[in-house]
Write a structure and sequence with these properties.
By secondary structure, the chain is mostly helical. It folds into 2 domains: about 1-50, Arc Repressor Mutant, subunit A (Orthogonal Bundle); about 50-215, Orthogonal Bundle (Tetracycline Repressor, domain 2), CATH 1.10.357. About 75% of the residues lie in helices and about 0% in strands. The protein has helices at about 5-30, 30-40, 40-50, 50-75, 80-100, 100-115, 120-125, 130, 135-140, 145-160, 170-190, 200-215. Helix 10 packs across helix 11. The protein is globular and about 60 Å long. This is TetR/AcrR family transcriptional regulator. It holds the Pfam family TetR_N. Keywords: DNA-binding.
Amino acid sequence: MGAQERVQKEKLILDTAIRLFTEKGFHGTKMDEVAKGANISKGLTYFYYKNKEDLYMAVTKKAFDNLKDIFRDIFRSKNKNGMDMLVDLISKYMDFSQEQRMYYEAILNFMGLMNQYNDKELRSQMDPLILESVHFNKLLDIHHDCGKIGIQIVSLGIKDGSIRPELQPEITFYTLWSMLIGYERLNGPINYEMKEIKIHVENWKPGFIKMMQDLLRGTIRPSRTPGVQGSLF
């Protein structure tokens, strides 16, 4: 089997897994179904991906790669300052979280795994099939790539004056990212309309973006805690 054919078969298995994980979820998908859907023998499927956990980690890596492409394309935008890039990033991240549900859930799942992995005691309780996954270990190397680009965008905004100068880029970007995760997680509760809650999904997104702009520009200035450096607020 030539190198090109190997790459094609690996991609076919991965694409089939993405479709099945999207339709049935991780737990509802079996490796037999992936092999059958890709029209590839089960043995060859296991040659490329040692088990379902390894395959899901490969899908997770593709999810991070796709998200990184969004970050990178925005950072390469011409004639835009750092604030404009961040606004674009916020909007497209929100779209990604809604339109690419399976990818987004895979990313959040990996973030949860990192909480376990970074704690030696909890790491011992992790699924050994995940720890042994080649693709999980690749993710350890690349999962901060989006963050690095986000930090560069914030730094650019500070440099060009569109973002307030006293902010620390790393803290600012990761605080913003955490808010975006919270925004996505709360979409369901907000969308379940209740009379006493005067907020709707249609006006929450522009309101969220406007508040982020105000915070980053310094329009909103709550009282500061003395001695805290680099706070977003």
